[in-house]
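Dear support,

We are seeing what looks like truncated structure output for some complexes. This example has two components. We would appreciate it if you could run it in full and send us the complete token output so we can diff it against ours.
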Amino acid sequence: MVSLGPIGFAAPLALIALVALPLLWLLLRATPPAPRHVVFAPLRLLQRLAQTPQTPQSAPWWLIFLRLLTAAIIVIALAQPVWRPADTRASDAPLLVVIDNGWQSAAAWPRTIAQARVWLDGANADGRQVALLLTANPDAVEFAAAGTVISRLNAAEPQSWPPDRGAARESVLAAIEAGTAPASFETRWLSDGVESGGDSTLARVLSERGRLTISLPGVEDDVLALARVDAAADGFTARVRRMGSGAARDVEITAIAQDGQVIARAPARFEAGEREAEASARLPLDLRNRVRSVRVEGVSSAGAVQLLDDSWQRPRMALIEPEGGENRQPLLSDLHYAEQALAPHAELVRGPLEQVLEDEPSGLVMVDAARSEDPALAAFVEAGGLLVRFAGPRLAARSDDLLPVRLRTGGRLLGGALNWDEPQRMAPFADDSPFAGLSASEDATIRSQVLAEPEADLDRRVWARLEDGTPLVTADRRGEGWIVLVHVTAGPDWSSLPLTGTFPAMMRRIIALAEGAGAGGADSEGTWQIERALDGFGRLGAPTGQPRAIPAGDFGSAGASPGTPPGIWRLGAASAALNTVRENTRLEPMARNLPGALYEIRDGLREQRFGGPLLALALILLAADMIIALAFAGRLPAVRASRAAAAGAAAMIAALSLAAPPPAMAQPADDGEAVSSDTAEALDRALAVRFGYILTGDPETDRVSQAGLAGLSAEVTRRSSIEPQAPRGVDPASDELIFFPLIYWPVTADARPVTDAAARNINAYLRSGGMIIFDTRDGGAGMRGGAHPGLEQVMDGLEIPALARVGEDHVLGRTFYLLRELPGRMGSSDVWVESSPDGTARDGVSGIVIGSADWAGAWARRDNGTALLPVEGGERQREMAYRVGVNLAMYALTGNYKTDQVHVPAILERLGQGGQRDEPQPLDR
Amino acid sequence: MSQPQSPTLRRAAEQAAAPFPALLAEAERIAASASLGTHGRRRSGHGETFWEYRRHRTEDGAQAVDWRRSARSQQLFVRETEWEAANAVYLWRDGSPGMALASRSQPLKKDRAAVCLMALASLLTRGGERISALGETGRTRTGRTGLEITARALAEGPGAVQSVEKADIVRHARIVLASDFLDPPETWAARLARLNASNASGILLRIIDPAEDDFPFSGRTRFAEPSGKGAPLLLGRAEDARESYRRLWAEHGAAIAAIARKAGWTLVTHRTDRPAGTAVLALYEALAPGAMERV
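Here is the complete output from our reference environment:
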């Protein structure tokens, strides 16, 4: 490597090519751009001209400069420049690079790898032998050329378990024993900075063989771990740990659902010097149940993730069915009320006791009729289960052992016929009760209950009371589990509580106590198999490698390791999470006095290679050069080849700005609505007369309109001095209509009303002198039974003045041909125009013509000139239809010219000749 | 069995026939807008239609007196008929490779020339003149058949220069030559002189493509012969040559105009980006002076 100040070159020999630049300069000056080919008839004239010698045009200086610059950049890029090359102490001792690739490194992995790559590149340039040792999954140590090791480095990934430095030491020792490692080598250890067992023994082995440098992560790469997540009654709490104990730091915890949706966020703050922080989030149970993982936001590391499993899920509650079933109507059945109250918040199973226990529920619900003293029930509670009991006549008659309080025999009856007590109401819930915050129903009246024996610590176990202070709900722990007793029946026999909204709310609070069966599968048979594995960056995916199966009994003690990677494990129907970080995971900084080790901190300053960006720049310059060359050859239509010193960049900018001309605003319509259209489009429409037709959206109708107007245009061109271009379909809502002298509007019976924008546009068009021909195309059939349905819809938003039938003397019958009727494809039918167009701005020309004769159908032609549709009255009528069309076009374009009295004598004369009424009048007699 | 072939053949035939009807239609349209026809020469001469009675002059001779008219008055009258001499008009459209060129969105020079001549032919036929495509349709014809034959030759014929150089024409014929006149002026001078030798006279319709007139080229440009023969010419900066070229072009135009004037021919210059109608009017006006005013 050769260095020039802060820039080094990995391949300095390539710089020799810079010598060739002057040569390139000469070449560039001599080579003009490729010419454009033109076939030119008066070449002979031009050749006479060319006898004066034409010096070949040489590229301007700035273009040559641009090209030389491009060439120079390419040469420099090939020399592999390095900004601030790493300190590469000359040494040819073999190099062992040790990388901690446990989960602790994952967050800072890109920087770690970049550092390692710098070392390996340096070793490659110096020709040193290199070996790579990854401490989380240590392989055999093999020294090889750096090039092969770099490919291994590129494939290396952080693992989701902690590094095993003891195993790494074994690996080094094995290599030394087998002789694959040289007697002495230098070691660089990219550490994650976290202490683990075997640090000092590994350091000792390495430092005995040569210099050992330990590179510790910088402050910004502090290791964060999510230690545990606990469910709370109204959400969850999460504990975060960090390795450093520096300045205060805020992190955010997110709870994420199966589909990746973030359900909750909670902030956690490490106070300065503190290494643990807690975050708590409030989350309703149903949302909490959807949470599948909790993460530290923005930290991609397996340690910053806690996967949640069955134990987190909504509890599975079992309803114990009485033996022999419960022969009661549903609305009187205790089980029915319990089921309805629990169903929104828990997964329910129902059956006899033995059967439901096989489903491993988190809680059992036992109504009075199902009461049982099965030892399995006690065992279930002892093992952490929740037992919810409801009182009833049987319990009142005889209490048993599975109760939170001792009961007095007989119970209590309130408000009966022989009783002067009023039915009792519920007292508000105490603040220390799990029901705190719920409002006790005022409607609930309790007529019967079982009574607890007064005891010293009874208060502690009471969760809800009646107004007179007697307990309504009592609960107590039994072993790992809970027993909750509701002192009334689950049905409405004893109280109206089950009929109120308070009841399900209370049930919901109670079952929040239920732990999932979760690791409760501990004592069952079988082995856990991994289903989805967590990778080092904290992403769930298919398991890789060869994960072992974990015997059911050992799952609780299993930790993250290569054989048992963290992830979701499954045993039968149960799934459990194995997390990278557990409650007891230590996160201590590495000792700074490891034997024989030198320490350095990885700071942000690293050498940067910029050969790639330089090459990209060169490519951009080449592209610019191409565009400039095209401009010089005159092949860029929008760019006039810039003369003299206009810079290439300027030419490009000009090309870009010319390619997108600012949209011209068409003349605004009366009510201020401006329809913008492209200038070219506007010019195209404005410079040629053409007929328009309204696009109806029905392809067949539009096709006939198009063909009809095309046919009419051809006939009008042939017969008169109007020479319209091809007709256009227009959408009144978006197109500017002002360019069309007449617009043909086929109205179908199912036409929809025009939009407001379209109506404004059309009204403006009519006011400014346009003409629209409405054609219902049904020969008047649609108008016979009153208004034409489609026409009515269409006309609704338009400003239509009073209309009148076209009479014999209407100017429409004599603008070009003398016509008595105005037939189309359908034969003659009534045609309507404005009754008194004189008052309008259109100088006595009706802006609206309404007919039903399907004129376009009669005009329509195929491309080869043959008629598209048959006409009722044969070819004679088609000719008449064309004459109508010519008259309409003349009417639209010349207006009331023919109503002028000047023409009356000529017309009278023609009329007087008789039998020739339909012959054309010479226009300019 | 040969079912698939039939539409193909038919389409090929239609395509082959396509340009001619289009050209003919355009020519008809132009002709229609140009004139309503000229009937007779509108002057006294040899013909069958009565023109006027005029006073007898001494040089008329006795047999010229119309006795029936003269008997009604004291004067002697001569009955004059309208001059209805049919003229022979030869039309020639240059078919050299250079004529098959056009700037973008302009018609080929050849086609525009054909359109103008066909429109003129149509007008002339209506006027009763005899027409022929020079060197291609032989003797002059009149009527719709003559027009049809001539128009087809104008639209699709080879338009060889030999037709002009070895013209087989009746004496005193009128000739309309449509070309770009890019051959050297001397060549054209010689050709016109040969035609003049047979007492022919006529009109030169010079068809110009806008690119030839404006020379809109710039940058490095290689110019090639339309015929493909000869070495192409490479200009380093075509825009530099523009001024000189335009000067040469103007000189060439002046030379052609001078030749025409010297030979007594009328020169009508037409750019293909202008409407063909103006050229046809000019041609017609040149052939039948004053015809337009009378229409």
